[in-house]
Please model this.
Amino acid sequence: MLLEQLQIADFRNLHAVNVRPSPHATVVVGANGQGKTSLLEAVYFLCTLRPLRANRLSELVRFGTEQATVAGRFTLGGAEREISVQVAAGLRQAFVDGKKAAKLEDYFGGVSVVAFTPDDLAVVKGGPEVRRAFLDRAVFNRFPAYLREHRAYQRALKSRNRLLKEHAPASYVEAYDEAVARTGARVLVRRRELLDELGPRAVSAVRAISQLPDVGVGYTALHLGAHHPQTEEGLEQALLHALVERLDRDRDRGFTSVGPHADDLQLTLGGRSARAYASQGQGRALVLGWKIAEIENVRAAFGRPPLLLLDDVSSELDPERNAFLMHTVAESRAQVLLTTTDASLVARAAGPDTLWLRVEAGEISEDARLRPARTA
Amino acid sequence: MTPDPLNRLVAQLSKLPGIGEKTAQRLAFHILRAPDDYATELVAALQEVKSKVRLCTRCFSLTEGQLCGFCTDPRRDDRVLCVVEGIADLMALEKTREFKGRYHVLHGVLSPLEGIGPEQLRIQELLVRLEDGKVEEVIVATNPDVEGEATALYLMRLLKPMGIRVTRLAQGLPMGGDLEFADQATLARALSGRREL
Ligand SMILES: Nc1ncnc2c1ncn2[C@@H]1O[C@H](COP(=O)(O)OP(=O)(O)O)[C@@H](O)[C@H]1O
Ligand SMILES: [Mg+2]
Ligand SMILES: [Zn+2]
Model:
């Protein structure tokens, strides 16, 4: 998969962008507040239809305009495809080769992307919701159908919560207990499949970049009890059981207290919770290891590396770990978009075919002079 | 300036689902250019559909009389009843020519987020229909999305205690997709591979 051309109109502070990224590294250099993250966010949105940091889609539309558009020409398995997405009036519409994409599967045929931003570095110390989102991004990169499955769960959950608040009759709530259990089991199975694949890779990646005590990657399913079959049916039954058991409590509180929306990704160092005990540096090494594992995992699953989006992470990592990351990126031969305030930090990921871009007040221009002397 | 009557027609047409302003304009021009008979017949058809077509009092599909063709056809099997969300789904299933039982149209699904509960659907009427004990199997053919599944589960809980076999169309239908848009082969396969609920 190759992003051959990228066009952006009125997305965040980007007015009009038209670039042809390098098949390998494209480096975007700019001071803070110029539009670096906006550019990566546009590409992430194009590839996943999910916002990278926005809470509402309307935040993506440039102030004073009505509609944001991101379009990309990709080569996918030898064929050229043009995919694009528009946001207007808080709604998004996706297009494949100029036609409205009816099914999300049509849209995602083969596009995969791994993003790494300074926000990710905070997941170890953050709340469970931050880690769930972090985990779900990885699941989605690996299983595109997860977007639909996760949405189905969200919908079932919202429906049940509504019924709880409205004191709906038991027979009605029970029907949605089952809907929550069924869609929730799917989410659990997907998360577990991802962790089974990614966990060991993350552990060895962390070992390669640090001397951390043994790293653990696990998952806590809240209120589910330890003894249930790990099959999808088993999980569905366990969820259903917990939902029924907690119904009175849930009715009192007006929301559902059990299910994947309440779970947590468990990261441990030497058997202890990394959230409670890891230092900032240790936490960052964990996340870096995870991200490298994600790249390897997508490559192993799809036979090609994902598109990488690295947003200003080099300035957040110490020199050694940054060097490791840059080396991994160069080795992977993946197509990568990196942003930085300082071109020298990402020099190691660059090569002769690197495209150097400067971003200033939302305008993007090519500028070969950005190339640090060492790689010239 | 376009004449008011034309504007009014375009405005009415663009209220139709799937018809935007541009398409409405094209349709309006087409009607304007067509021979006079066409507009007259279109008007008559529109009026007739409103005055003559109503819901069958038994299955709630469409009919001109009291009962619809599906309910009165003596060759259809009284022992199997297929429950669908809407008339478009009924028509899609009917096109496969695989199903020879009777129908029941719910006119919607249970949707807490849209404020649609059991009372808004033709569920009570379904229970009344089943009272005589003639129906042995109910096939729940609601869409395989969250609301369709929840509605199926709700019905299953109501019907199972009545000693009725309750089945669900096999998956293989696009998840989150609409029955109405599924191709016939997929639908036929789903029908023959239906599972117990
Ligand atoms: N919808 C929007 N319309 C216009 N400007 C926006 C919008 N959203 C954010 N911005 C602005 O865009 C600028 C660039 O943000 P960002 O891409 O995060 O910068 P960088 O990553 O280069 O530090 C910021 O000044 C921000 O306030
Ligand atoms: Mg930024
Ligand atoms: Zn009828």
